[in-house]
Amino acid sequence: GPRADDVMEKLFDGPVPEVKFFHIGDFTIAGRQVKGLRHGMAGQPGFEFFGPWADNEAVLEAIMAAGEGFGIRRVGAKAYSATPLESGWVPTPFPAVFDDDMTEYREWLPAERIGSVAGSLFSEDVHDFYLTPYDLGLGRSVRFDHDFHGRAALEKHAAAPRRRKVTLLWNAEDVADVVRSQLEPGTPAKFLDFPKARYGLYQMDEVRRGGERVGISTDAGYVAYDQLYMSLATVDVGLADGTEVEVVWGEDPISAKDSVDQHHRQVTIRATVAPAPYHEWARTVYRA
């Protein structure tokens, strides 16, 4: 949270050690040696500490004691699941390993067993499910100063990106309609959970504008700080912030999956394109 640095200064009894964003440093907490990954899961600077399990209680108690004066509290794993929406991180993009020429690779590493595909996106062309680093706002991490598998393909995407990562702010009335449908007679809309809507490892919902597919909505959920339902999405580069689109929520009958409750109807939820991460602090200071 916004007081994370204050807690860390109290914990270390001085300035927080300088570690670059998403880099790892060595620390001493309660006399125990730990490693810390400098990032944060709520669009605020922070650390993720890890070390021997035997030191768990001592390190945790020290952190909680340091945060007593700053309102620190444990909120649980369910709240944690919604934090990527604030930091703008898209978890578990669909792996691009399902082409015919990747059969031997899939036999060696059974990727199809690690998770299920969920959402309204339906296509008989598996390439429609693939995402590039540029679709996910990770193009800044691609370097062409060395050879690697897929370099030629990525160079084409770098020269002409098709999509960009955004936040979609879901319309409050439409979200309320989905929730209300669970309590009224008739076939309800697909259940919309709080604080996280995803019901498969690879959540991929179709985003439309004017009846045409213009992107894919991935992680979705409720952010209590903003009192907004939102999702992280990748949309056509021509869609500016402020553009209204529609998220198709619920399974298409022809893409019915055994793991999904069939007793629901597909609906559209209006949404507005916004930056990702949503807050300026998370887009700038957080990643500094």
UniProtKB/TrEMBL annotation:
Q: Name one Pfam family in it.
A: GCV_T
Task: Give residue ranges for domain GCVT N-terminal.
Answer: 1-89
Q: Which GO terms describe its molecular function?
A: transferase activity
Q: Which UniProt keywords apply?
A: Transferase
- Which InterPro entries does the record associate with it? GCVT_N, TrmE/GcvT-like
Name of the protein described by the UniProt record: Aminomethyl transferase family protein
